[in-house]
From TrEMBL:
Highest taxon of source: Eukaryota
Species annotation: Perkinsus olseni (Perkinsus atlanticus)
Family as reported in the entry's similarity comment: Belongs to the class-I aminoacyl-tRNA synthetase family.
PANTHER family assigned: TRYPTOPHAN--TRNA LIGASE, CYTOPLASMIC, TRYPTOPHANYL-TRNA SYNTHETASE
Single GO term (MF): tryptophan-tRNA ligase activity
EC number: 6.1.1.2
GO CC term (a single one): cytoplasm
Swiss-Prot/TrEMBL keywords: Aminoacyl-tRNA synthetase, ATP-binding, Ligase, Nucleotide-binding, Protein biosynthesis
First-level EC class: ligase
Gene Ontology BP terms: tryptophanyl-tRNA aminoacylation
Name of the protein in its database record: tryptophan--tRNA ligase
Amino acid sequence: MVTDNQKEIKNKIMKYCFSGGQDSAEEQRKYGANLDVDVAYEYLRYVMEDDEKFKQIGEDYSSGKLLTGEVKNTLVDELVKLTKAHQEARAKVTDEIVKEFMNPNRPSLAKFKSIGKDRKLSHSNQ
């Protein structure tokens, strides 16, 4: 999904996310959704940064104020933001950056090498 565009993300969410909503809009408005089984709502729990907005969605969805499609569209919006940020960051990674990251002798790892040596010494003294 991290390489998908907005249309692909929306198609996957609308097609594959199991809903805890009712069979019709009328029933949904009357009975609300079962949040315990709603996949889109559960995904929102992990990707939505605004806890108050997430809480409000849960209240509105379970009471029937929101329909399944609205919750799924909110999830799509959140996933598009997340994947777009990932795609932009990934596009900035060059072969040189990968090469340096994979270098076991890079300076940023020096402190970990000294920790490993200290541990070996302490274990050999026991």
